[in-house]
Amino acid sequence: MNYIVANWKCNPDSVKEAKKILIGYKKGIKKSKKAQAVICSPAHLLGLAKDTLKSLAAVGGQNCSWENCGAFTGEISAPQLADMGCGYVIVGHSERRKFFGETNESVNKRVKAALAAGLTPIVCVGETREERIEGKITDVVELQIKEGLKDVDLCTTKIIIAYEPVWAIGTGQACSPQEAGVVSQFIRNIACDKIPLLYGGSVNAANGMSYLAEAGFNGLLIGGVSLQPVEFNKLVANAIAL
Fold it and tell me: pTM of the prediction?
């Protein structure tokens, strides 16, 4: 199974535009056992996404609290996401780490909350440009996995890891399939070779399949291009054709 995951981030700026994107998906996504499309929209659009796409795609949150409910203004909990029909949730995205102070420890608590609610966490790991230049890629990734997934049995738990080199996100400078492939093998060596691995970072329809066919990944985590239905649908179709 290949997973093609759309991360809309804080987009689009209107429900009207969201409907256009979702209808575009609906026109092109083909249902298949070979590929699972997952749409991670802003929380207020999850119901719309689920109602529009139905069984063509799953829906997921972009983050979740480690608390189930209570006085935590601005948070959305894993049980709330599950109640909305989500099957997945992105955890530990680099933008959450950079702009909102999330740490490996808080990622670990969110992962456990997601699992307890029956969600599949998509756990993001990856190095900054400075860490890459300093030759710390595997050190950073290993620490993020060991601390972020502490006390989680990776071989028996339904979990997905997404390798997103921070320097490649939204820059148009995707990591080469060869370099990404080295990291994917490293992750399998320290985690579990049964875990689905995704690649993310300046992915598009032209380069996306090289990460699946050449670098050993089981899917893609797609940012800006996921707001372009034609491009996203191509990636789903190509994943089915592999």
Answer: 0.96
**Annotated active-site residue in 95, 102, 164, 231:** 164
Structure tokens at 226: 């996921």
How many Å apart are CA 145 and CA 141, to the nearest integer? 6
- pLDDT digits over 34-72, tens only? 999 999 999 999 999 999 999 999 999 999 999 999 999
Please pick, among 93, 95, 102, 231, the residue that the annotation labels catalytic. 93
Alpha-carbon gap, residue 97 to 104, rounded angstroms: 9
44 part of the active site = no
What is the C-alpha separation between 123 and 89, in angstroms, rounded?
8
Domains within the chain, CATH numbers bracketed? 2-241 (3.20.20.70)
Q: Which residue, chain included where needed, has tokens 């893609």?
A: 220
- Answer yes or no: are the C-beta atoms of 218 and 3 closer than 8 Å: yes
Instruction: Give yes or no: 134 in active site.
Output: no
**Angle at Cα 62 formed by Cα 58 and Cα 65, nearest 5°?**
115
SS3 at position 112: helix
